[in-house]
Design a protein that fits this description.
The protein has 27 helices and 12 strands. The chain is α/β, with parallel strands linked by helices and about 650 residues long. The strands form 3 sheets. Strands 7, 8, 9, 10, 11 and 12 form a 6-stranded mixed beta sheet that branches. Strands 3-2-1-6 form a 4-stranded mixed beta sheet. A two-stranded antiparallel sheet has the order 4-5. The longest helix is centred in the first third of the chain and has 31 residues.
Length: about 650
Amino acid sequence: MTRFLVHLFGDFAIRAEDGGDAALKLCKGEAVLIALCLSQGAPLGRGQLLLSLWPNATDHHAKASLRKALSRVREVLGDTAILTLPGGRLQLNSDIVSTDIDRLLDALKAGQWLDAAAMAPKASVLKFWRGPTPEFEDWVSDERRAYDARVAALLVEGAATAQREGAHAEAARLAEAAFAVDPDNEAALRIGIKSLCAKGEPSRARRLFEEAGHRLREDLGVDLSDATRDTLEREVALASGDPRAEPSQKAADERPMVIISPFRPLEPGEGNEYLGIALAEELLSRLSRNKWLHIVADGMPGTYKPPNITTHADEYARSKYAVGGVYLATDRAFRLTVRVTDVHQQKEVWGERYDADLSDLMKIQNELSLRLASEIEPEVMRAEQNASMQLDEQDLKAWTQIMRARYLFWRTQFKDNQKAIFLLQEMLKRQPDDVPALATLSFAMLLNVWSFWTNVPEEALLESERAARRAVRIADQDPWTHFTLGTCLLARGDIDGAEPSLLRALELNPAFAAARGEYARLLLFKGELDRAYEEATAAVSTSPSDPHASLAMNTAGLAALLSDRKEEAMDWALKAAGANAPWFHHQLLLALCHHALGKHDIALEKFRIARKMAPNMNVEGLVRSHPFQNEVHRERYFGPLFEMERQQ
């Protein structure tokens, strides 16, 4: 029995174990083999292949073409190279066919750094291969990005481990390979620089930095970060024996400190200074309810100065973000400009302008502080998540590890979410009572269920609920813990159990837009469409930049659709898809809206797009996570989806 190795890094090729090359000479045959190789040994449904490779063909022609492609693969690689499982699913026979990706990953997982370094790729997965159809090329591109990220992450882990073990040559080789696969992964480049300098080759480290910078500018149009440049200069100085060089600053374990300053009038002396102080105090009160950030006040009434490291050295030495701004108040109008600044880097991470009617000061103080708190919180968290991705793997501490996991979670891709789960589980082994880690793990498990990435959803839901309940027991006053538990229970279809948890989250933090959006979903399933629409739109308007906002948009669209406001529902569906393009639930809502408007061909196409985004998705599997209590609403939602599923 001849064994074959499929090369997926760089140029696609098939080589027999005796050294000879094998050629399929059929583009669709290559595509079928590639799809099976990229499925990581998991069974692959024929529907995915038919939709991607013969999107415009009749059902009869597409199936006949697939049989021909499979026949060609079996003719070249052997009759048992592709196995047919019950239900017509296809699976690669690993006893006959393996890939260079598999071998590299096996070596990395086994800690065989010499072997892994010898197999280190010079290019990303299928970089020079072009698919036979745009649909298949899109699918391959998605898989390529996922594989590149996974391979690069493992290469970086391997490089970091090899570096700690003193195997600097292997560490440098693995780090360079990681950057070749994923040129946006500067963590790999920094490990490579450190390893080369540790080997006594600072000139090669500088050359690697320059070559990587040139490639990044050519490929992505961006420069290397200051953090990577600082690493280069520091490590080269250390390798050169410069006594002024200092070790790199490690990431802190603590929550980021956010300092709130009174807002400053553009025209001082007009007697309205109290407005900025009162608004800052209300904002301080609201943001302090977030237990994931450390909120502090700066300045006393009448002595406020703009944020400045020199004049507030003690406070700013301990803080990371500063919130401040200016306002202009006339007889009737009030305009406020707010900025969040990264104190250490002295750069703005977020800014916004708000206008209000000055006739009702209490309304300004209440509503504007609510919106500010709802928007500042996710922006600071987003900045923290992005910053965590610039750190080397070995530099991750408790907080930055959680932030990296959140970053990976919000990419809503299978490989990224699995990496997030791994990071969180590893952290919880060391700190089993860390509330943010427990809450984030609970959501990552839910994403496996929502996205149909698990064959045992009950187990994932159980683990999600276990983490959420533990978080509530540890931190009953943290609104995030109750929000997490409420979301978990709603995903199980337990409306009665979810409602008190979500209401408790909003009681603890009325500015919690994500919890308000989830409560809107609960009201939708209860059949209270008007209240659901009101809560969903409120969540969007108070915090449009929150990553949860697209889910609230989806809820608003569904509430409008079930209320027979079809055009309004379509507007919300388009907004949701624009805010979070990879989330297939938004494509399902678009399909429902087009179906309601009588555009059945377009509806079917949107449903197909949703299936492409989530190949394992089936309408029956949506039933539990959409527990409509009103039978009419249930039929309006599931009836068209079942109909479109039958037409696939």
